[in-house]
Amino acid sequence: MASSLFFALSASALPVRLLLATHIAAGTTALLAGLVPMLGRKGGVWHVRAGRLYVYCMLAVALTAVGLCLLQPLTLSRLFLTGVAMLSFYLSFSGWRAARRRSASLARPDQLLAVVALLVGVLMVGTGLWLQAVLFAFFGGLICLFAGLDTRQSLFPRPAEQAEPWMLRHLARLGGSYIAAFTAFLVVNTGRVLPADAPAWLGTAVWIVPTLVGSLLIARTVRHYRARLRHSARP
Fold first, then answer.
1. For residue 218, how far is the Cα from the chain centroid?
2. Which end of the chain is more exposed for a tag (fewer CB within 10 A), N or C?
3. pTM tops 0.85, yes or no
4. Contact, 215 vs 177, CB < 8 A?
């Protein structure tokens, strides 16, 4: 795959180098900042500040990933990173908004973002299928799933969803965002350190293990806080 959307700058071109440096710096900062809410005291000042920094960094990661796609020849690796970045940003922003509003229901800006994200997801699926970039289409499908759920909730709200504690949405979305970002980090960097004759299952494990372990931890955490909230709501 050597086609490009608009430009075909080399990796040594100044705009590409600036975008890549920003992308790496923002991604690294996001991974470090994301540890603070997960490991620190919940709801404290540092939790809030680090969470906000994480979302801002994921926005920078998504924007720079798109910029690199526009400036450089398309590759499967580039499309993969862009797909992960878009998914991770949407999950982080929607989860952050739930905590900021203290509500699982969606305000008008959230509804608009969900519709835009749904359109972007559809575009990613179509582009991925056209370019035979399966992973790009896959991540576009995941964006369609989450943004579609949010859009449906906006248009046809259900009482059970409206009554769902905002904290659970916050935990699930931010956790999913971190898993996606961490998996991308591992996939990109593991390929650089593994020997050429490394068994194929190692590469597969890098994909599967973080998602599996992270999903189990998120599910366990959500169950814990759901039970805790129900217990505190009892008279």
1. 14
2. C
3. yes
4. no
Average pLDDT score over residue span 73-97? 88
Give the integer Cα–Cα distance in Å for 178 and 217: 12
Residues 6+ positions from 226 with CB-CB distance below 8 Å: 165, 168
Least confident of 47-51, 69-73, 96-100: 69-73
Please choose, from the candidates 232, 226, 218, the residue with its C-alpha nearest in 3D space to the C-alpha of residue 104.
226
Confidence band, pLDDT 50/70/90 cuts, at residue 5: low
> Between vectors from CA 40 to CA 62 and to CA 171, what angle results, nearest 5°?
50
Q: Which residue has the tokens 């919940």?
A: 42
State how far the Cα of 117 lies from the Cα of 141, in Å rounded to an integer: 11
By mean pLDDT, which of 55-69, 167-181, 188-202, 219-233 is the weakest? 188-202
Coil, helix or strand for 8?
coil
Helix (H) or strand (E) holding 210: helix 200-233
Tokens 């943004």 belong to 147
CA distance 218 to 235: 28
Q: Which two tokens stand for residue 65?
A: 């990933």
Amino acid at 179: I
Under a CB-based contact definition with an 8 Å cutoff, are residues 104 and 164 in contact?
Answer: yes
Amino acid residing at 51: G
Which is nearest to 124 in space by CA: 174, 59, 62, 207? Answer: 62
